[in-house]
Amino acid sequence: MEFDILPGEAFYGGAVMDGINQPYTQASERELDLTRNQTPNQMMPLLLSTAGRWVWNPDGMRILFRKGRIQCTDGTILGQSTGGLRQAYLGAMEHCFHLHEIRLDERLFSNPVYNTWIELTFHQTQEGVLQYARAVLENGLPPGVLMIDDGWSDSYGRWHFSREKFYDPEGMLSELHRLGFTVMLWICPFITPDTQEYRELEQAGLLVTDRDGKSYISHWWNGWSAVLDMTQPAACSWLKRQLDGLQAMGVDGFKFDAGDSVYYPADSVVAGDTHSKAWAAFGERYPLNEFRVTNGAGGWSLMQRLSDKEHSWGNTGLAALIPNAIIQSLTGHPFLCPDMIGGGEYHNFYGQKVLDHELMVRWAQIACLMPVMQFSVAPWRILSAQDYAKVKQAVALRSRCMPLLRQALALCRNTGEPVLRPMAYNFTESACARVTDQFMVGDKLLVAPILEKGATRRTVYFPKGSWCSECGERYDSTGEVYEIEVGDRIGIFEKESG
């Protein structure tokens, strides 16, 4: 299939990782492979346009943007709605993907989420987890969901607390609950070879195999492991029994990591994207879940995080947060998290005597008005008192804006309309089509963070109407760009009725 891009038309969608390069327009020269998810983040074989059109292929597609035209794989569907980007999204939700019953736990959104990864990495211990949780409270942050990350068990697939690292896990969980925390544990679909679990699962035929029938050993970021075949009901039942035991102990939910298609064999009986989707389907049954990578899971009841970001201002760090989150929203992954504040790429924090304090503050300001705000590196440890106070101000701002966030989240649960929206979703003015450095929360709140190091001013595009800042400044716009002094705050503006 081949068709023209309309004048002024802008396309969004596909791979979340490519959000930094979007939207695609008449000037774009780009080739997309949406046949298999080769990225560490979400992907949907779906594009939406500001002219109310959508491009969809449930089997995946290749797309070429060239000289103002789009060429697509045969079998791709081009749909049309009357209206703009919002109507394209609603049309796609009707014809391409459907909203599941959203059972995500409210606690993922009501307070910040905390993750032990950057502070403890693979050295998770009972003392370390409790120390981290107590430090959250001692330093003036509210309790919330606490994720204990990779390293709490002795091996992958042996989903029991390591008694060497956690001498009294039941007592630890009880204490964390007493402190006000909700506890999630990191898990993955991998099975460490040369373990009792591996032998039992291999004998039962519950591991992913190659086409010769041999158990496949995957090379992933933590080494070499077998893969539990999540397409088999018996394998899902086996894993559920492990997690049932943890929940009986007091664990509240799970972080489902390592669903990357690239770590599953392309030549196996179970294709990588099929297994990735089965992993997500299993995790959807838990109201407290987190996923980093899925394929074709638009509309599912999943909390989905942006992939690990660098501790930087560039396109692999802070600059990617809003553009990539926009693509999450427009491809049916609205319950999103803009990675851990300061970046989730732990190598960036090793051997660094001085981290970028300003980056941490600006990241917190961006995250505080997205659906999920997640800390990992301890801001009270690495920041000056002055900069840490700014981070706490961002948390306080989230609390003040929580009524608007809750309203947008409730609408999203019921209708699928995203919480975080690009400007073009709410406004059909042509100038909105390419704005990806500010966003809307629902219909009323415009968020314009600082994205450049050292900056205290930024341009803000106000669609037609009256807008009021948190400080009471009023902007009566006919669809104009203003340059606004933000200082060390974040620019937020509420649209007045009428």
TrEMBL record:
Domain Glycoside hydrolase family 31 TIM barrel, first and last residues per copy: 123-405
Pfam family, one: Glyco_hydro_31_2nd
Matches recorded under InterPro entries: Alpha-glycosidase_related (IPR050985), GH (IPR017853), Glyco_hydro_31_C (IPR048395), Glyco_hydro_31_TIM (IPR000322), Glyco_hydro_b (IPR013780)
Annotated GO biological process: carbohydrate metabolic process
Top-rank taxon: Bacteria
Residues annotated as domain Glycosyl hydrolase family 31 C-terminal: 416-493
Keywords on record: Glycosidase, Hydrolase
GO molecular function ontology, one term from the record: hydrolase activity, hydrolyzing O-glycosyl compounds
Family membership noted in the UniProt record: Belongs to the glycosyl hydrolase 31 family.
Record PANTHER family: GLYCOSIDASE FAMILY 31 (PTHR43053), MYOGENESIS-REGULATING GLYCOSIDASE (PTHR43053:SF4)
Protein's name in the database: Glycosyl hydrolase family 31
Species name: Ruthenibacterium lactatiformans
